[in-house]
C-alpha cells in the first residue's frame, strides 16, 4: 500500500469514529486516562473554561495576563513533583529544574520536553511605541505557551543557570502541581 492510499484509509477511519466511541478508541490505542483527559480538556470552549478555571487562571492562560509578582501559590514550592498545564494537564516542568530566581514567579531552567511548549516573540509590553523597541531591542520577550492547548504560561529569558542559561518565568496560575518523584512515578495531585 502506498502513502496516499494509507492516508486516505486513515482519514476514513477517523471520520467513522464518533465522539461516543472516542474514549474506547483512545483506550485501544494505549493512551492512559490522563492522556485521554488531556485530549478532552484541550478542546473546551471559552465559556467552559471560564466555569472551570478561577478568574486569575482564565486571565493568565486565555488573555495572556500576568499574576502579580510574589503572589502565586507555586513561587516558593520546593516539594518534588511535576508541574502541568492547568488547562489541559500536559506535563511541562519538573521540580528538579525549578530554582529560586528572585523574580517573583516560579522559575525553571528547562522543560520536560521541548515539544511541550511553544516559544514566540512578544512585544505586547512595548505597545505602539516602535521607537522604544528600535532603541531597546532587548525589550522583545519570548512568550511560552502550552503546545497542546495554546494556554499562555509566561516568558523565557536567557539569564538562567548553566548549562541551559534559560529562566522559564511561569505564572503559578497557569500550572497544576503533582507531588512525588519528578521523574513521573508515584505522583499525587495537590489540587
In short:
This protein has 191 residues and is an alpha+beta fold.
Span between N and C termini? 48 Å
* Portion in strands: 15-25%
The overall strand count is 10
Poorly predicted regions are 1-39, 185-191
Order of helices and strands: HHHHHEEEEEHEEEEE
Shape: globular
> How much helix, percentage-wise, in residues?
25-40%
Give the radius of gyration: 19 Å
Briefly note the structural class of the backbone.
alpha+beta
Strand order in space, largest sheet: 3-4-8-7-6-5
Pfam families: SelR
Family: Belongs to the MsrB Met sulfoxide reductase family.
Cofactor: Zn(2+)
GO biological process, one term: protein repair
Characterization of this structure:
The protein has 191 residues and is an alpha+beta fold. 27% of the residues lie in helices and 22% in strands. The chain has a 6-stranded antiparallel β-sheet. A hairpin with a 5-residue loop joins strand 6 and strand 7. The longest helix has 14 residues. The chain is globular, with a radius of gyration of 19 Å. The termini are far apart. The relative contact order is 0.17. Keywords: Metal-binding, Oxidoreductase, Zinc. It is an enzyme of class 1 (oxidoreductase). This is Peptide-methionine (R)-S-oxide reductase. It comes from Frankliniella fusca. One of its GO terms (biological process) is response to oxidative stress.
Amino acid at each position: 500500500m502506498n502513502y496516499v492510499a494509507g492516508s486516505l484509509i486513515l482519514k476514513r477511519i477517523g471520520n467513522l469514529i464518533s465522539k461516543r466511541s472516542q474514549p474506547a478508541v483512545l483506550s485501544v490505542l494505549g493512551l492512559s486516562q490522563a492522556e485521554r483527559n488531556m485530549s478532552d480538556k484541550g478542546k473546551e470552549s471559552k465559556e467552559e473554561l471560564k466555569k472551570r478555571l478561577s478568574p486569575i487562571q482564565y486571565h493568565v492562560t486565555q488573555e495572556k495576563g500576568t499574576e502579580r509578582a510574589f503572589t502565586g501559590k507555586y513561587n516558593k514550592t520546593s516539594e518534588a513533583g511535576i508541574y502541568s498545564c492547568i488547562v489541559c494537564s500536559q506535563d511541562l516542568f519538573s521540580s528538579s529544574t525549578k530554582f529560586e530566581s528572585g523574580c517573583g514567579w516560579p522559575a525553571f531552567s528547562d522543560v520536560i520536553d521541548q515539544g511541550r511548549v511553544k516559544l514566540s516573540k512578544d512585544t505586547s509590553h512595548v505597545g505602539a511605541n516602535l521607537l522604544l523597541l528600535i532603541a531597546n531591542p532587548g525589550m522583545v520577550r519570548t512568550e511560552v505557551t502550552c503546545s497542546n492547548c495554546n494556554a499562555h504560561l509566561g516568558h523565557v529569558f536567557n539569564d538562567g543557570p548553566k548549562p541551559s542559561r534559560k529562566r522559564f518565568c511561569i505564572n503559578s496560575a497557569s500550572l497544576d502541581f503533582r507531588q512525588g518523584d519528578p521523574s513521573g512515578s508515584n505522583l499525587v495531585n495537590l489540587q
